[in-house]
Amino acid sequence: MLQRHGESKQPQRLSKKELARQFRHEAYLRAKEYRKTDPRQIAMTEKLKEQQREAYQKAKERNKAYRTEQKKVAKEKTDTKKDFKQKKLRAMVVSGSTIKKPSQKPEPHVLTKLDQVSVKTLRMMDNSMRNLAQGITGKPIALKDLKQYVDIDNG
Fold it and tell me: Could you state, in order of their start, the residue ranges of all structural domains in the chain?
């Protein structure tokens, strides 16, 4: 029999309730020791651990595939947004390579929408274009004088 701390070594008479509790505890300790050393129990525990590891690896792979798919979808969304913005910008801006002949009137590059430019600026731009079409321009600039400030190719 087990003794509790503080009890004397003289056998005491235990109540039925205490005796049953003591027997249950002893049976629990014997079963615990048996489970610890039983080969079938050990094999079953190892098998269960291996199944748990496999389930964890499968869940980890599923989560990784899901995250990869979500990143792919998000990247496609941002790519389509970027493409849309670039197309919109290209529609607003006329590239310089569209001017084919020097005899044609040069076209101004569109950088902003017309409703975003002030009325005074539009009027000044119209005047400048009219002057350019009529040949009214300023004096030519001698680039040779500016050579010290700017790298000029003579070709």
Answer: 16-104
